[in-house]
Amino acid sequence: MNASFNYSQLTTLRNNFSATPARNSDNSPSFEIHTLEWIESQKSLWDEAEKLRNFEVIWIKKGKGFLQADGQNYILTDNTIYCIPPGRIRKATVESGTEGYYISFATEFIFLSEGHSYSSVWLEYFDNQSNITTTLIGSDQHFELEIIAKKMKWEFSNYFNRRLELLKGLLNIFMIYFSRDLESPCQNTLTDKENELARKFLKLLKKQFYTKKMVTDYASQLCVTPNYLNRIVKKMTGFAASHHIQQQIVLEAKRQALYLSASMKEIAYNLGFDNLAHFSKFFKKNCGMNFTDYKKGLHLV
Questions:
Q1: Would you call 131 helix, strand, or coil by DSSP?
Q2: If 0-12 CB within 10 Å is exposed, 13-18 middle and 19+ buried, where does residue 199 land?
Q3: Which residues pair with 72 in a beta bridge?
Q4: Does residue 244 surpass a pLDDT of 70?
Q5: Residue 189 Ramachandran class (φ > 0 left, ψ -120 to 50 alpha, else beta)
Q6: What angle do CA 112, 107, 184 make, to 5 degrees?
Q7: Are residues 75 and 165 in the same domain?
């Protein structure tokens, strides 16, 4: 069985940026920031779907656009920030004259300085979300975020001393500003050890769900019992580990059906199901409809 699925046929935004002279040619391409006016002028960048390697933040200050991520459609509107975690398949368009910012950053970029663990709670919040996080920005927040965004863009466009360290700090402040009311309250009840366990599980899941579909598989690797793992993950996210495994598999099935037009038989094989009937039953149970009806619905979007 395939351990992973190849999305190489999707156009990669990262390669397009690299070929564009407007992009900063830093040795560390783990962070970038651009105005949406510039993004709109490079229409080919978002024309095709791309499986994201990094976080993306799209801030629409004024204007409209359309965003699709893993088959979910969003209308981009004024004074709104959209945060898309890595691994999602995204394509987007913005109307002419739209104002705002586009920010892309790798998880590793946040770990530039030693103090990241004390100031990056927001990173785990966004990384654990199954959907795009949408935040409406008030006038006071707009003023503060605009100052920070302009400073980030200035630093990104120049090569001053300790540039990346400063960019990391500005990004951290930017993310805290607009997400301070979004942090999951259940995280406050977790010990450091429990939080680390849940985080490790979610990280393993993203890499291994093709071949490991039981809570016992992950509990064994993490040296805990399945019941304990389920309880801690539920304490952190609101859902047990088993739920996350099921939803990760269904999400990947939807991605392949939507973006690669794969058949149910192909998807079942790609996801490690030997029995097509088993996959069909699994999909209906966790999606709420059978695979055929889901495929038909895609043509109506």
A1: coil
A2: middle
A3: 69
A4: yes
A5: alpha
A6: 110
A7: yes
Q: Say if residue 210 is in the same domain as residue 269.
A: yes
CA 3 to chain centre: 21
Report residue 229 CA to chain centroid gap: 23
Of 55, 30, 86, 57, residue with least CA distance to 207: 86
**Residue from 201, 157, 162 nearest 38 by CA:** 157
Domain of 222, in residue numbers: 191-298
Q: Which strands form 65-69's sheet, in the order they lie side by side? A: 50-51, 89-94, 65-69, 72-76
The packing angle between helices 276-287 and 241-259, to 10°, is 110
Higher pLDDT, 42 or 103: 103
Query: Does the model's pTM come out above 0.70?
Result: no
Cβ atoms of 104 and 32 closer than 8 Å: yes
User: Is the domain of 152 the same as that of 223?
Assistant: no
Q: Are 175 and 183 in contact (CB under 8 A)?
A: no
- Is the predicted pLDDT of residue 10 greater than 60, yes or no? no
Dihedral sign from CA coordinates of 207, 208, 214, 218: negative
Calpha distance 79→60 (Å, rounded) = 6
Determine what percent of the chain is predicted with pLDDT higher than 90: 34
Tokens 């009806």 belong to which residue?
293
- Rounded CA separation 181/133 (Å): 12
Question: Distance between CA 24 and CA 144 in Å, rounded?
Answer: 25
Domain total of the chain: 2
99 CB neighbour count, 10 Å cutoff: 15
Q: Which of 125, 21, 37 is nearest to 83 (CA)?
A: 125
